[in-house]
Design brief:
Number of helices: 9
Radius of gyration: 23 Å
Helix content: over 70%
Number of strands: 2
Strand content: 5-15%
Order of helices and strands: HEEHHHHHHHH
Largest sheet: 2 strands, antiparallel
Strand order of the largest sheet: 1-2
Structural class: mainly alpha
Shape: elongated
Distance between the termini: 14 Å
């Protein structure tokens, strides 16, 4: 019976998710004003890196207001850009989290071995469960960090810079990453034990 190359398929899907997430992160976010014209907020990456924030949006809105010389013009960017950029960042973060989880579940194990173990003992099942939980926690943490860094109105940045917040967030993800690596190690250990016992399930 023909066996699908699940490992390669999973790796390809994860690569596509990473590529789409990167594209969303670098594409310009645009919001529509009352006059129907689209106005640029910059990309989600610009906001995360600090190159764009509410101050730059407000300054550009004021320039538009001066150029239009009309009280009917509103601060479109300052009002709409935070939500629009947060939505874009959430989508990018979600795709990255999904790609990381898919990689965690598929990459360490070969297709014939990971899909249905002929000897799926308790250690193997525990390893899969631990790795899945660690992957989910890591993905959720990355999304949370992305949303926090993309919020230009967060009062936290009055006291701490964005790079420091990002570094602290990554350090806080260490237990989740360790959980994923621990599950992976358990899974590999169980597989090797099956092979040594004469139960090679390749």
């Amino acid at each position: 019976m023909f066996a699908l190359p699940w490992r390669r398929i999973g790796a390809a899907v994860a690569a596509v998710l990473f590529a789409v997430a990167a594209l969303l992160a670098v594409l310009d976010v645009r919001v529509a004003g009352r006059d129907g014209a689209a106005r640029s907020c910059g990309s989600a990456l610009d906001v995360v890196s600090g190159r764009a924030d509410w101050q730059s949006w407000r300054a550009q809105d004021l320039l538009d207001l001066t150029a239009a010389d009309s009280p009917s013009v509103v601060l479109t960017r300052a009002a709409a850009c935070p939500a629009a950029v947060n939505d874009r960042t959430a989508w990018a973060g979600g795709l990255i989290g999904g790609a990381c989880l898919l990689t965690a579940l598929v990459w360490p194990w070969r297709a014939g071995r990971s899909a249905r173990f002929r000897r799926r003992d308790s250690t193997a099942r525990l390893g899969i469960a631990v790795a899945a939980v660690g992957g989910l926690l890591t993905a959720a943490g990355l999304v949370g960090i992305g949303l926090l860094l993309a919020n230009p109105d967060a009062t936290l940045f009055v006291y701490v810079s964005r790079p420091v917040v990002g570094l602290i967030g990554l350090l806080l993800l260490t237990p989740a990453v360790a959980l994923w690596l621990g599950g992976w190690a358990l899974r590999v250990t169980a597989r090797d034990a099956n092979v040594d016992a004469g139960g090679d399930d390749s």
